[in-house]
Amino acid sequence: MTGVPSSGIDDIDCEILAELQDNARIAFAELGRRVGLSTPAVIERVRRLEEKQVIVGYRTLVDPSKVGLPVRAFVKVTVAGDKLAKFSALVRKLPEVLQCHRVTGAESFMVQIAVRDMTHMEEAIDSMMPYVATNTSMILASPVPWNSILPAARYGRKPRPDKAGNT
Predict the structure, then answer these.
(1) C or N: which end of the chain has fewer Cβ atoms within 10 Å?
(2) Spacing of C-alpha 94 from chain mean position
């Protein structure tokens, strides 16, 4: 395998992961057909990937705009060293927060939020303010909203075509 040999996953595991990232609700029988394994064999491999915590969960991705949260932004947050833990605990509780990452550089965190409108954005940012200085960038579009963690090029294979047949 040309990927990361120390990870203990092989090419078939990579194919399983790629398929599950594309559709986590795929039936095991169909998954087995796509990767060339029997249903029991694919079930065992998925179970092993879960046990090794290569697969850490399954989620439904929801379009925020379809549930009344059409405005998204990245809030770059600068936090003093003694406030890092307090800020981390705070953002876990804020319903507007989609993602929060501790980062290097001038800021301490990158927080993605989804809100109804500018007033709601102001409220969300203000709720972070006791601990931080912020700089906000509005998200205009997301050409790659989420991508597979196992890019085909990393494993020496051709890119997988999208639903329209484009590679």
Answers:
(1) C
(2) 18
Residue 147 Cα distances to 8, 36, 83, 84, 162, angstroms: 22, 24, 32, 29, 12
Judged by DSSP in three states, 18 sits in helix
Sheet hosting strand 132-138, strand order edge to edge: 97-102, 109-115, 71-79, 132-138
Number of domains making up the chain = 2
In a domain, 144, yes or no: no
Q: Are 15 and 21 in contact (CB under 8 A)?
A: no
Cβ neighbors of 71 (< 8 A, separation 6 or more) are 114, 115, 116, 117, 118, 120, 121, 138
- State how far the Cα of 136 lies from the Cα of 129, in Å rounded to an integer: 13
Question: What is the chain's mean pLDDT, rounded?
Answer: 88
Domain of residue 29 covers: 5-59
Query: Among 127-136, 144-153, 156-165, whose mean pLDDT is lowest?
Result: 156-165
81 and 52 within one domain: no
Tell me the helix, strand and coil percentages in the chain, rounded to 5. 40, 15, 40
Check whether residue 39 and residue 93 sit in a common domain: no
Q: pLDDT per residue over 20-68, tens digit each? A: 999 999 999 999 999 999 999 999 999 999 999 999 999 988 999 999 9
> Distance (Å, rounded) from C-alpha 71 to C-alpha 121?
8
